[in-house]
Specification:
Layout (H helix, E strand, L loop, with lengths): L6 E6 L9 E6 L5 E6 L4 E7 L4 E9 L5 E6 L8 E6 L3 E6 L4 E7 L4 E7 L8 E6 L1 E8 L4 E7 L7 E7 L7 E7 L3 E7 L9 E3 L2 E4 L7 E4 L6 E5 L3 E6 L5 E6 L6 E8 L2 E6 L4 E5 L22 E6 L12 E9 L2 E9 L4 E6 L5 H9 L6 E3 L3 E4 H7 L20 E7 L4 E6 L3 E6 H9 L14 E4 L5 E5 L1 H4 L7 E6 L4 E5 L4 E6 L6 E5 L7 H4 L1 E6 L4 E5 L4 E6 L6 E7 L4 E6 L4 E5 L5 E5 L1 H10 L5 H10 L2 H9 L9 H11 L19 E6 L8 E7 H14 L3 H6 L5 H10 L5 H15 L1 H9 L4 H18 L8 H22 L26 H16 L6 H11 L9 E5 L5 E4 L18 H6 L2 H15 L7 H20 L7 H13 L8 H34 L10 H6 L6 H30 L32 H4 L4 H4 L2 E5 L3 E5 ...
Parallel strand pairs: 13-17, 26-30
Antiparallel strand pairs: 1-49, 1-50, 2-3, 3-4, 4-5, 5-51, 6-7, 7-8, 8-9, 10-11, 11-12, 12-13, 14-15, 15-16, 16-18, 19-20, 20-21, 21-22, 23-24, 24-25, 25-26, 27-28, 28-29, 29-31, 32-33, 33-34, 34-35, 36-37, 37-38, 38-39, 40-41, 41-42, 42-43, 44-45, 45-46, 46-47, 48-49, 50-51, 52-53, 54-55, ...
């Protein structure tokens, strides 16, 4: 539910392992996970199995943009699965190592060099102590990354280079030791209970020691008396009591110390940058138990080095390795482990065995002396993992034959306009392949493996050496030729290619270095510059080259340092180049002159003043940084905007722009490609791996757009996708209209429904281009013809119909092979070169993308019959290999599953399920691969993580529902073409011919297939996975589903709702109780009264300002009375904690939404923390609202008449009624969720709601229903106003259906209040035309029509109120010449209502025995006491002189006559002229509301009482 789109990443890793230059390592305390951070910014999660000593790379975390300096566990409690990472540019992240999700991101101004997690006393969570290039120790909350407090120095403040925390015995506080770079030891005593948030704590003691630039400081855990301090040149032992030096040992020659730790009280281990470690026995004066402790060190009593820890083959390392020592408590003592990661990607682990004193004496006695060598227990790397895989992981160009050692892919570019992937390689060639066909070839079984021309590549050769970069200028701006592809290589050249013919158009060689980046100038530049491309070279130069003129325009080559950023200032004709030394060069683009060179503050100001939205900014920053940064910076933007920039431009040109200002559709997805392919390199020298991004919303939009384009408005309405006729019929009644106008509109509306079919039939025999022109002209002519008739938006429907026909005919003609002459290449080479069609069949490509995605996600092997249906009927294909999925999380950070890891351990693998003949035919490695694939697709896929399960289930269910709703579409191309052809031909055909019957039967089978697939993944999946032998199924995350409760995409929304309801039912009452207790702590408490007026959603300038939200962290700083949490008894004695936090929930549930600017006294971190707390509140409201709506009527759930139901209902009502403001906009997913849940759970929330306010607020949103809201089944995304309108309309229907009396009585009171105001409107100077009841007449009338049809019993009891509401909505002009049975026939189905057109009176019988007489001429109502029991029927005589009333309970019939004053003046009086006793009606008949007696006049004075059994009784007036 939010703007963070549902995206499924899939990785094609390729044959070569990614470079993994390790600079930080972490072994978790449970010794099950190893974490390695690299200098390129990635983090790798390794699974470690201690019994088998097996290390397996599980996933790669992509997010940091610079070297990962340090890693730490977020919590020291057993089972903790969270880690913290910090990079050298200040980025801090909290990760969930189970699935690689990024939970929190914070960009700090401080760069940390060390992080230590520590569990403080009486604090439930761990604290993170950080030191670095700043003069203090910062203490963070590891889960929120918020600075809780800091430790500062008064005396000689300086950077803290080392820190250690300990808790002395018999003390209730912690002692923090810090060592500055200048050699000052600082001692702080900390107790968090006495620390105020954000407060600085100063040191208690300080002392200068002779230890400069220390690398680490460790206090001995065995005695807490000795301290080890390590510098590059030596290590020293100090007495912690007075910090006097006890011993000092220098580093071996040619090495540098990097750190150390205590093995025991008298043994230490030190490691060096050479990749090995040394173990020493301390001298006696450093041993606390010794009598010589703290004495002066003797010459013969030196530290004794007796062990060396090193790999079996010591290699020279370019960069220093990363080390970690950890002691794991076991029953027999402690298991001592030493972990090392180096720049070669190797991860080594040593188990350090204890050496007793006796063994040490024996070692010393052996001559010559030889140290003990400790060999590594584990030695593994990504390269070794890749080499062990047979066959190797699939790559994107593995289909190229005849290449045993294919060149590396060095540059990749996806071309959505052509649906192709361009790959530049190390040998200078560029390969163009169809993207979806290539993916299917590598990942899926199927018939396509037998097609000789499947995924046929085009090869472009022209570069001498590797291709560094690729650019498709037309994808950036349509001012460029769509055939041109530009490449830059290591041979200093820039080549311009014709992609369709494969010819080299032109070759530029203007720079003296390899080309590293290609850019496009912004569209606001001069016309000459707009035809140029910009290139950046390693020779520190920037060039502008005109593709049109094929010559150099500008060569900026005076830069002294490497170029970092290229920006533009088009209004001043400036090209601005920022270099690595901070200097900025400003060039005039037209003249090529260097205008000026700036340094320092001026340079920064110029860069910041440039247009930050220029296309060149994002491209240059991404291209010149680390290759992985290019991917990451695109991911962290909403909708993957930076990655899919070319796709948006390309698809926009294919589909065209729609400039209809009244359009209710959200077109943001119509310009987005459902598939994006992005190259990924962890190091600039690596071969490209490729990440496939499947955008689910874009895929659904594309599928539904193609489907709806084939339907006329009448067909759309017949399929309940729009409700135009119903809304128009109601809308006509609520507005004044003459009889002639109404007749014309009715006739014209009947013609509109089938207009598209008629136009298509007339156009079939014409030429294609002439047809399209005629379709456009037809729309223009119709617009002119019906301009005067367009009273109610009919013209827009005619235009939509014509546009649909144009799209339909174009796709129809092109499907049989006709191509536009302007797009068909006029060359047919006979040289065997592959030619690319300029036209992209978007529909076919969309089906292929859907086929690939559904095939990869489906649970193959759980239901054999369903698998057969999927393959033979639905068009799914079985995977060939275990798929490496990815997961997008906060800020676009991403985790990618490694191909070396399988979620099911080897010892839990089921037996191979292959036919014996196939198993004998295949090689053993292929049999093993097929076995792994079967296990992965059936159960392993759902054992990876809950977050991945959630995203994949949402994808499967939403796509399956979409295809099922598309008139039972399949993913088989041939069958889909036949289906669409049938849909087109069926418009003109009549009757049930045999083909129609056969097609209908096929549709039933297809729908059943999609329904079974949906049922498997919605309801049956946990049980089926358990039956397959799995015990670790990861269920979907309810908070993610709750946040998508009102997703922008209707199909994703419905899938999330179905999955959440199923998951809540599956977990049972106990599980829901735990969930309620967990999330009720985040539920806001509103003590202030709700707004007294209905918020105005459509007029933002009239909205009141909402109260300022208060975050939990600031709430805790207030008085102690606010810190307490209220515990309320809910249900049967259960306790639910509801926080007293009147914070306003965050209106945007996605984590990518921009935060508001900090206010005075607030830091950016405070704003981020507040926003996260507000999002949790919003999630809690939705989650508890769903539980209450569907399970709240059960007393065990805690939603009875208790505190929890009241808190939830108030929160939902607040979201609906809160005034529109900047912090709470009018149309957000959160408001829509509140509307929806109020409607779904109205019986639970009703006791705590002001029903009138709620109904008026919903009606205010529905004021434009006739213009904005299609049916709930309509799948295309709508603009926020239309989506809110549709949701509010559905909520009103739910409320009216659940509580008809409450709705009717409330609306009747509001109508009475409106009528009172209307009578005094002139004196009060009020404009009632802007009131909700006036503007929402159409919606009110629609709901009343719905209630009359479905809730007749309740309508009969409230007949007078219903009549009041109906007469308020229906314009009186319609009743002047027509009867009520013609205007609103639904209400005339009740015998209690009668209308006399002659006298313009309406009589309604009430339950209390009275008759309501409505004088339409005078607009007044008179209540006549008629009977003692409910009135069963009333009827006017044909001439209007008499009124007959009948009460079945009273068995009485009466005649009434109305007399007016003389000459029509005075007050009219209605008197009873006659009464008759009737035959009593049996009790069983009275109880059946469908069999009530009726009154029928046979003459002006005779009426017949027609009983339910057919008997008649005549009465005379």
């Amino acid at each position: 539910m939010g703007s963070l789109n549902l995206v499924v990443p899939v990785v094609l890793w390729g044959r070569e392992a990614p470079t993994h230059d390790i600079c930080s390592v972490l072994l978790t305390r449970d010794v099950k996970t190893v974490v390695t951070g690299t200098r390129d910014g990635q983090i790798c999660i390794w699974d470690f199995d201690p019994p088998s000593l097996k290390l397996t790379a599980r996933c790669l975390l992509v997010g940091h943009t610079s070297s990962v300096q340090c890693l730490a566990q977020a919590s020291l409690t057993p089972g903790s699965q969270y880690i913290i990472s910090s990079s050298e540019n200040g980025e801090m992240c909290t990760w969930d190592i189970r699935d690689g999700r990024c939970l929190e991101v914070f960009k700090s101004a401080n760069v940390h060099s060390s992080m230590i997690a520590y569990q403080m006393l009486n604090v439930p969570d761990s604290r993170l102590f950080c030191v670095g290039n700043y003069p203090e120790i910062l203490v963070y909350d590891p889960m929120t990354l918020e600075v809780l407090f800091s430790l500062s120095a008064r005396i000689e403040p300086d950077w803290i280079s080392a820190v250690h925390i300990l808790r002395p015995p018999r003390r209730n506080d912690e002692v923090v030791l810090g060592l500055t770079t200048s050699g000052w030891v600082k001692v702080w005593t900390v107790s968090e209970r006495e620390v105020r948030p954000g407060e600085a704590i100063y040191e208690h003691e300080s002392k200068m020691i002779r230890s400069l630039n220390a690398l680490s400081m460790v206090c001995c855990d065995y005695n807490q008396r000795t301290v080890l301090i390590v510098t590059q040149n030596d290590w020293q032992i100090y007495d912690a009591g007075d910090f006097s030096q006890l011993c000092k040992v220098s580093v071996p020659t040619g090495e540098r110390w990097m750190g150390g730790d205590f093995l025991t009280a008298d043994r230490v281990i030190l490691w060096t940058d050479f990749g090995q470690a040394y173990i020493y026995k301390l001298p006696t004066n450093c041993i606390v138990e010794s009598r010589a402790f703290h004495n002066k060190q003797h010459e013969g009593d030196q530290a004794f080095m007796y062990g060396i820890v090193k790999p079996q083959h010591l290699e020279h390392l370019v960069n220093a390795p990363a080390w970690q020592y950890i002691a794991i408590p076991v029953s027999s003592g402690a298991e001592k482990l030493l972990l090392r990661g180096d720049c070669e990607g190797q991860v080594m682990l040593w188990r350090l065995a204890d050496v007793t004193d006796h063994q040490l004496v024996q070692i010393q006695q052996v001559q010559p002396f030889r140290c003990i060598n400790f060999a590594p227990t584990v030695n593994h790397s990504l390269m070794k993992s890749w080499l062990a895989m047979n066959p190797s992981p699939v790559g994107v160009l593995d289909q190229l034959e005849g290449e045993k050692n294919p060149p590396r892919i060095t540059a990749s570019l996806f071309l959505p306009l052509q649906g192709r992937l361009a790959c530049g390689r190390e040998d200078g060639s560029i390969i163009l392949v169809p993207a979806t066909e290539t993916i299917m070839l590598h990942l899926l079984h199927g018939k396509h493996h037998h097609y000789h021309n499947w995924a046929q590549p085009m090869v472009l050769r022209g570069h001498q050496g590797r291709v560094n970069c690729l650019l498709y200028p037309h994808g950036e701006s349509n001012r460029y030729d769509m055939a041109h592809l530009v490449s830059g290589g290591i041979d200093f050249s820039i080549s311009v290619w014709d992609m369709y013919t494969g010819n080299l158009v032109h070759r530029f060689v203007v720079q003296a270095g390899p080309i590293v980046q290609l850019l496009v100038p912004p569209p606001t530049c001069t016309p000459r510059i707009q035809n140029c491309i910009c290139s950046v070279s390693e020779d520190h130069s920037v060039a502008l080259m005109s593709i049109k003129e094929r010559k150099l325009v500008l060569l900026a080559s005076q830069h002294l340092y490497p170029i970092v950023t290229v920006k533009w200032r088009p209004q001043h004709d400036f090209l601005i180049v920022s270099c690595q030394d901070g200097s900025v060069y400003i060039w005039q683009m037209e003249t090529g002159h260097l205008d000026r060179v700036l340094q320092g503050v001026q340079a920064e100001e110029v860069i910041s003043a440039c247009d930050e939205h220029s296309q060149g900014v994002s491209s240059t920053d991404a291209g010149l940084a680390n290759p992985a940064v290019h991917l990451f910076r695109g991911l962290r933007h909403r909708n993957l905007a930076a990655i899919r920039h070319a796709a948006q431009r390309g698809i926009q040109q294919v589909l065209g722009e729609q400039n209809n200002q009244q359009d209710i559709h959200d077109h943001s997805k119509l310009r987005t490609c459902p598939l994006m392919v992005q190259g990924l390199r962890t190091h600039k020298q690596d071969a490209n791996s490729h990440v496939l991004f499947f955008d689910i919303e874009a895929l659904i939009v594309q599928l539904l757009s193609d489907e709806y384009a084939l339907m006329s408005p009448g067909t759309l309405e017949a399929n309940e996708l729009i409700q135009s006729s119903q809304y128009q019929r109601m809308n006509v009644l609520t507005h004044p209209a003459s009889p002639e106008g109404a007749k014309k509109i009715a006739e014209f509306f009947g013609k509109v429904k089938d207009k598209a079919g008629e136009m298509e039939k007339k156009m079939k025999e014409k030429d294609k281009h002439d047809l399209l022109g005629r379709a456009k002209d037809k729309a223009i002519n119709m617009e002119k013809t019906f301009k005067d008739r367009d009273k109610h938006g009919i013209l827009s429907k005619v235009k939509e119909s014509a546009e649909n026909v144009q799209t339909l005919i174009q796709s129809k003609v092109e499907s049989v092979g006709i191509r536009p002459t302007s797009l068909t290449p006029d060359k047919e080479g006979n040289d065997g070169r592959v030619h690319i069609s300029r036209h992209l069949d978007i529909t076919a490509q969309t089906l292929q993308i859907g086929q690939v995605l559904m095939s990869l996600l489906h649970s193959w092997g759980l239901d054999t019959s369903l698998d057969t249906t999927c393959e033979n009927i639905l068009g799914l294909l079985k995977p060939r290999v275990p798929v490496s999925f990815g997961l997008l999380s906060k800020s676009g950070y991403m985790s990618l599953v490694m191909p070396t890891w399988h979620p099911v351990p080897h010892n839990q693998m089921p037996p191979i399920n292959l036919p014996p003949e196939l198993e004998e035919e295949l090689p053993p490695e292929m049999v093993q691969l097929e076995h792994l694939t079967q296990v992965f697709t059936s159960r392993g896929h759902w054992e990876i993580s809950s977050a991945m399960t959630t995203h994949h289930l949402l994808t499967l269910v939403s796509l399956a529902n979409t295809l099922q709703d598309m008139n039972a579409a399949t993913l088989i191309p041939e069958q889909e073409r036949r289906r669409k052809n049938h849909m087109q031909s069926s418009k003109s055909s009549q009757g049930n011919n045999p083909q129609e019957v056969e097609f209908a039967q096929q549709q039933v089978v297809i729908k059943q297939g999609w329904s079974r697939l949906t049922a498997l993944h919605t309801v049956l999946l946990p049980g089926q996975v358990a039956q397959s032998g799995s015990t670790s199924f990861t269920p979907p995350m309810v908070e993610i589903l709750a946040r998508r409760w009102q997703d922008r995409c209707q199909e994703v929304r419905e899938a999330a709702q179905a999955l959440l309801k199923t998951e809540l039912s599956r977990m049972g009452a106990e599980g829901r109780k735990v969930l309620v207790e967990e999330w009720s702590a985040h539920l806001p408490s509103y003590t202030d009264p709700l707004p007294t007026t209905v918020p105005t959603y459509n007029n933002h300038h009239e909205a009141m300002q909402s109260p300022k939200p208060e975050h939990n962290s600031t709430k805790q700083q207030n008085s102690s009375s606010h810190n307490n949490q209220t515990v309320n008894n809910v249900g049967n004695g259960s306790h639910t904690i509801v926080s007293e936090r009147p914070m306003e929930p965050h209106p945007h549930l996605d984590e990518e939404h921009e935060e508001e600017e900090p206010m005075d006294g607030e830091s950016h971190r405070d704003v981020v923390a507040q926003s996260e707390g507000r999002r949790k509140q919003a999630t809690a409201i939705i989650l508890l609202g769903v539980i209450g709506a569907y399970h709240g009527q059960d007393s065990q759930e805690g939603f009875g008449l208790g505190q929890l139901a009241m808190q939830t209902s108030k929160a939902l009502a607040y979201l609906l009624l809160a005034p529109v403001s900047s912090k709470m906009p009018g149309h957000t997913p959160l408001r829509r969720a509140a509307m929806d849940l109020i409607g779904r759970g109205f019986p639970v929330w009703e006791p705590y709601l002001d029903v009138a306010k709620v109904l008026l607020a919903l009606l205010d949103l529905c004021a434009d229903t006739d213009r904005l809201a299609p049916s709930m089944k309509y799948g295309l995304p709508l603009i926020p106003e239309a989506d809110s309108c549709r949701t509010a309309s559905n909520a009103l229907t739910c409320i009216a259906e659940a509580r008809p009396p409450a709705f009717i009585t409330t609306m009747a009171r509001e109508v009475a209040r409106f009528n009172t105001l209307q009578q005094n409107a002139q004196s009060l100077q009020m404009n009632l035309h802007n009131s909700v009841l006036y503007r929402a007449k159409t919606e009110i009338l629609r709901i009343m029509d719905y209630l009359i049809q479905h809730k007749r019993v309740f309508i009969m009891d409230l007949m007078v109120e219903v009549t009041d509401i109906v007469l308020h909505c229906v314009d009186p002009g319609h009743l002047k010449s027509r009867g009520l049975n013609e205007v609103f026939p639904a209400i005339c189905g009740f015998p209690q209502v009668s209308h006399c057109p002659h006298t313009r009176r309406i009589a309604t019988g009430a339950k209390n025995g009275s008759i309501a007489m409505y004088e339409l001429r005078a607009s007044k109502c008179q209540m006549i006491p008629a009977h003692q029991e409910p009135v069963t029927a009333v009827s006017f005589s044909p001439d209007g002189k008499y009124l007959t009333s009948y009460s079945m309970m009273e068995s009485k019939l009466s005649f009434w006559q109305t007399s007016a004053g003389m000459f029509g003046l005075g007050t009219s009086q209605t008197k009873c002229t006659k009464s008759y006793s009737t035959i009593p009606v049996p009790e069983i008949v009275r109880m059946n509301p469908q069999r009530l007696p009726k009154l029928v006049w046979v003459s002006n004075r005779t009426v017949v009482l027609m009983m339910a059994d057919g008997t008649e009784h005549r009465f005379n007036a």
